[in-house]
Amino acid sequence: MALTEDDVTRIAHLARIEISDDDRRAMLAQLNDIFAMIEKMQRIDTTGVAPMAHPLGGQQRLREDRITEANAREQNMKNAPQAEDGLFLVPRVVE
């Protein structure tokens, strides 16, 4: 799928960016290179390959879930302009 300069102009308009003619031509070449790489990757046979959550097979390190600070509700509620039953009162924004 090759893009044209008109496509790049339309994309720039949708993104609300101003782009010069030189930049448009450079962007066109870069986008077409990206699409060529995607098409090349889509031609690769991946049947029998299981999806991976991480490209290197790594796992996310998780820390132990523990309480590190004391409950300071009363102190925090002193900053509230309006409060009721331990909750901040805020103006209604949706009716």
Explain the layout of strands and helices.
Layout: H1 5-14, H2 21-42, H3 73-77, E1 83-84, E2 87-88
3D structure, described in words:
This protein is mainly alpha-helical and 95 residues long. It has a domain at 5-42: Histone, subunit A, CATH 1.10.20. Helices cover 39% and strands 4% of the residues. It contains three helices and two strands. It has helices at residues 5-14, 21-42, 73-77, and strands at 83-84, 87-88. It has a two-stranded antiparallel ribbon with strand order 1-2.
By secondary-structure content and strand pairing, the structural class works out as mainly alpha
Query: Compute the gyration radius: what is it?
Result: 27 Å
CATH architecture of the domain at 5-42: Orthogonal Bundle
Report the mean per-residue pLDDT as an integer: 90
How many strand segments? 2
The largest sheet is: 2 strands, antiparallel
- The SSE string, one letter per element, is HHHEE
Short description:
The chain is mainly alpha-helical and 95 residues long. The protein is built from 3 helices and 2 strands; from the N terminus they run αααββ.
Protein traits:
95 residues, 3 helices, single chain, Histone, subunit A, mainly alpha, two-stranded antiparallel ribbon
